[in-house]
Design brief:
Elements: E1 7-14, E2 24-32, E3 38-44, H1 53-59, H2 63-66, H3 76-83, E4 87-90, H4 93-106, E5 118-120, H5 121-128
Parallel strand pairs: 1-4, 4-5
Antiparallel strand pairs: 1-2, 2-3
């Protein structure tokens, strides 16, 4: 696939499924540049709220495990700069992008998504299967 601009593949684990209330616990972003170069971010966060048991059963992380990890706000500017001007893709990208947007908002960062293309391979999979 020939890229016109960088493409960031997002994957995050969270405290739940409500972007307005829940928080990101882990975030991985692979950035592919049009010239073929790749960069990535692999970050872990203390969400500052309780991780419910049913969520721990899904991703294996609990409150004790994340207690010493930094808050999202410590890396918010770095993440914002990393994805600025990029298109997004991933599995369930709509959710990941929405919760990332909410995390930025809580840090006072406005993420301009105008003109951004989003590919949700999870949605495509569900559509065709």
């Amino acid at each position: 696939m020939k890229l016109a601009r960088p493409l960031c593949t997002l994957d995050c684990e969270t405290t739940g499924v409500e972007p307005v209330y829940d928080r990101i616990v882990t975030l991985y972003i692979l950035k592919e540049h049009p010239d073929g170069r790749e960069e990535d971010l692999d970050l872990k966060f203390n969400p500052g709220i309780h991780i419910p048991e049913e969520t721990t059963e899904i991703h294996g992380m609990d409150d004790a495990m994340v207690a010493d990890w930094p808050a999202f706000k410590t890396a918010a500017e770095q993440i914002h700069e990393f994805i600025k001007g990029c298109d997004l893709n991933g599995f369930n990208t709509g959710f990941d992008a929405t919760i990332l947007y909410e995390e930025f908002s809580r840090c006072g960062i406005t993420w301009n998504t105008k003109g951004m293309h989003v590919i949700d391979v999870g949605g495509l999979f569900k559509l065709f299967e």
